[in-house]
Amino acid sequence: MADLKLSETRDLTRIERIGAHSHIRGLGLDSALEPRAVSEGMVGQTSARKAAGVILQMIKEGRIAGRAVLIAGQPGTGKTAIAMGMAKSLGLETPFAMISASEIFSLEMSKTEALMQSFRKAIGVRIKEETEVIEGEVVEVQIDRPAVAGAALKTGKLTMKTTEMEGVYDLGAKMIESLGKEKVQSGDVIAIDKPSGKVTKLGRSFSRSRDYDAIGPQVRFVQCPDGELQKRKEIVHCVTLHEIDVINSRTQGFLALFTGDTGEIRAEVREQIDTKVAEWREEGKAEIVPGVLFIDEVHMLDIECFSFLNRALENEMAPIVVVATNRGITTIRGTNYKSPHGIPIDLLDRLLIITTQPYTKDDIRKILDIRCQEEDVEMAEEAKALLTHIGVETSLRYAIHLITAAALACQKRKGKVVENEDITRVYNLFLDVKRSTQYLMEYQEQYMFSEASIGDGDEDGTNAMLS
Ligand SMILES: Nc1ncnc2c1ncn2[C@@H]1O[C@H](COP(=O)(O)OP(=O)(O)OP(=O)(O)O)[C@@H](O)[C@H]1O
């Protein structure tokens, strides 16, 4: 029974980990920004990857803040994959926020507020703080018990040492509580932040490594610090403007950061924060790190959002905005006008445009190979060739979806390697867009609100492919 439970949990976490883009680990470029054929999970699409690499370089050199990039191309040609590749190559220091344009239409906040929050999630502030710390090895913690229980506050003494000196500090009730919470005992190396009284346990002193107590697998041994007990230390915190907003918005509190339930943040709060951050920048205490905001399906934004974007990009702290769309010439939401990609011309004019190209058969084969590896699916060569053929005739995404389904069909017949029969089985079970449309054309009278007239749509009969 215990075994069963264990394997169930393992499977669940495994499923969660395999997202549509989990195989993408970067843009797959060499040091001269030339795309490698297959690298970091990326295949083909060389000129788009190269262009994305140049933009990445400009971002890293801080040269492109406030600009915007459009990745345009047919569905399933790797636009989101390239954005993910950029995010992975940026490193943890540069904030990256990702939204799909339709997410901003919610009842809880206005569209422009949702966009504003996304913008501020993509702007980092690196705050430098000098603080005084007491850092050393604990020699003794001595707590005096009050004569009558509860009569007076507890007091005590803390003796700490470095390799060069020893010092004794008086303890108040608050410090005693902090030390108790961290379970500090003699032999621990700790740091106390003097202004806030925050205690951090750095590890256990090497000199105590022979002690019989407190030695578990988690214990980290460290050297006893040298020099003075009290030191000035520079601490760097990296936060996003959105995090500062939420923490300072009186109605929310920082827990909202975890639930995502931040509600609207008042304009005054943001103004105050911007003024404060500007002061810190002047004093050399803080730096702005413009990150990347990726807006997928950008044609879903409406005219108000587009003018907000236009204005927001002018702000000196603006992040780099990368947008993607698979639309051609279409109506701009909220107007009767048509425009390329459904984006107003004035905004379009500011964008650096990267286009993605349809994949060749060879590229599709390689992407499917990578996905099979990512999903731990063993597939016969013949079956891979068939799946590639399906990918060419239908879409890459449909072929990717069939991998897991075919693996399940294979498991069901107790096979180890996915064969042609498994692919055929799931191909017949799940329709791709073309066959689904064809089916609708044939049976439309039996559906509700059907508006198409016979003869509309795509009639190339992909269905004949496997027969
Ligand atoms: N060049 C590539 N290398 C590796 N995997 C890729 C590549 N291009 C696309 N993929 C994978 O193919 C799938 C579909 O691609 P993706 O979602 O990026 O397409 P898209 O252009 O954003 O599509 P849409 O316009 O429908 O949003 C994803 O699982 C993606 O990770």
UniProtKB/TrEMBL annotation:
* UniProt GO MF annotations: ATP binding; DNA helicase activity; hydrolase activity
Any one annotated GO CC term: nucleus
Nucleotide-binding in keyword set:
yes
Biological process, per Gene Ontology: DNA repair
Enzyme class name: hydrolase
**Localization (cell):** Nucleus
Q: What is its EC number?
A: 3.6.4.12
Which family is annotated? Belongs to the RuvB family.
Q: What is this protein called?
A: RuvB-like helicase
Give the source species: Salix dunnii
